[in-house]
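User: Please fill in residues for this 151-position structure.
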């Protein structure tokens, strides 16, 4: 999961997707591990934005372990799939490929859309991002058994 600062969108997607994967019984870290990072480095080591964390907590998720990380080119080799939150994040990590795409390419409601950055807006933006992240995470988890060879 990749966004700009790794304090709002990508950590929200990270927490929700990891939760959904665990609930589906697919949480073996040797097979499936969810990580997140930002293309900018100014928040490295910081916790999630308090508004993002509050939105997740209110929905029953635990955001407490997140600490912002910075993307480097090693992620391209280490990760099987990279999901960028918007077109600029996608460009910043080298552009689209068979393993690099927009997170919402798998959104069942609006495939190919971006996850808007709620940082400069109000609480509603974080709620909107959570809804996008939840439905897209459900679609990703539904596709995982086939991708892992476990139909």
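Assistant: Residues filled in for all 151 positions:
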């Amino acid at each position: 999961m990749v966004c700009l600062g790794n304090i709002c969108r990508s950590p929200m997607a990270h927490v929700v997707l990891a939760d959904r994967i665990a609930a589906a019984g697919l949480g073996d870290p040797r097979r499936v591990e969810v990580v997140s990072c930002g293309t900018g480095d100014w928040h490295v080591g910081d916790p999630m934005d308090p508004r993002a964390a509050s939105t997740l907590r209110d929905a029953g998720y635990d955001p407490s372990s997140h600490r912002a990380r910075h993307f480097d080119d090693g992620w391209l080799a280490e990760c099987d799939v990279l999901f960028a939150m918007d077109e600029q994040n996608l460009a910043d990590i080298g552009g689209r490929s068979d393993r690099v795409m927009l997170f919402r390419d798998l959104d069942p409601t609006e495939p190919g859309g971006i996850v808007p950055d709620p940082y400069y807006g109000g609480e509603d933006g974080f709620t909107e991002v959570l809804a996008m992240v939840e439905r897209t995470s459900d679609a990703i988890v539904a596709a995982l058994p086939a991708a892992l060879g476990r139909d």
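For context: Strands lie at 2-3, 37-38, 82-84, 100-102.
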